[in-house]
Amino acid sequence: MEGKVLKQERIIHKVNRFYLYVIIWSIIVQFLPIPFNAYQYVSFLIPISIYLFINREKAERILKPNVLDFKSTIIIFAIWFCMLPILVSIVALYTKFFGSTLADIIAYDYHNTFVGSIIFTAVTPAIFEEILMRGIILDGYRNKSYFVAALMNGLLFGMLHLNFFQFFHTFIAGFIASYLVFATNSIYAGMIIHFINNGFPIIIDYLYPPDPNIGYASNPNFSSCFVSVVFSVAVIYMLIGLLAKVNGVNLKKKKNISDEKIINASLIISIILFILFSILLITLISKTPS
């Protein structure tokens, strides 16, 4: 039995328009003379604060501030661990076909201290980006199926990073993080996996400094990548089901589906801006002396 179709609301139009404003503002902030560490605070915190103030009566529904138990946290960590082969394979394939110049610039740690790296690379994005993406944006797609909402959230999350290199693996990360929020009805699920994903490598690098002479794999084994990805997807699927069961959520239950169209002017313009800015970034990098 299909989910009931709701009368058309314009919540997707509203949230896609807000996302467009965030993209435009984030591009503008790239050219402002502000400290590197202030980027997330200026580009994300300001629009988030404005949106939540305007929609303050719906803040609890948008943010889903439900505390998770220890068992859920362990399952989320296991999901992140199983997600690694997928993300690593995507990065390896990207650098194989497009080189590692952009990847090296993005991955470079611009912070001078371990604490600074943790705060600005792990804590800040885990809070601001999750409130923006798995809070505000995901709430705008609440009347679509879980899969469609997660797929669109992954797409928009990937574009939020404004470069082709990060787009692909953050698309997957955003898709999975959306399902974690669905499975727990808590934004903290997204924050936890986001913090682990950004923070764990920093901790490992701090404890065991990497060899600067070792770079990305130049010749990834495609068969191994495929097998590891398929296995990871299967395990993640089972773990998300377990997470939902632990939190009393039925992800298979049919939802009331809105007939509002997803593709609108705001989404199209956002995609165009992402592509143009990403091309501009690659062009500027290619013209920069080595």
Give a short summary of the structure:
With 290 residues, this protein is mainly α.
How many DSSP E strands?
A: 2
pLDDT < 50 runs, ≥5 residues: none
The overall pLDDT, averaged over residues, is 91
Integer count of domains: 1
Please list the strands of the largest sheet in the order they lie side by side: 1-2
Largest sheet features: 2 strands, parallel
Total count of helical runs of at least 4 residues: 11
Q: Tell me the distance between the termini.
A: 60 Å
Instruction: Kindly name the structural category.
Output: mainly alpha
Q: What is the 3D form?
A: globular
What portion of residues belong to β-strands? under 5%
Multimerization state: single chain
Helix content: over 70%
Cα-atom radius of gyration: 19 Å
Q: What string, H for helix and E for strand, traces the elements in order?
A: EHHHHHHHHHHEH
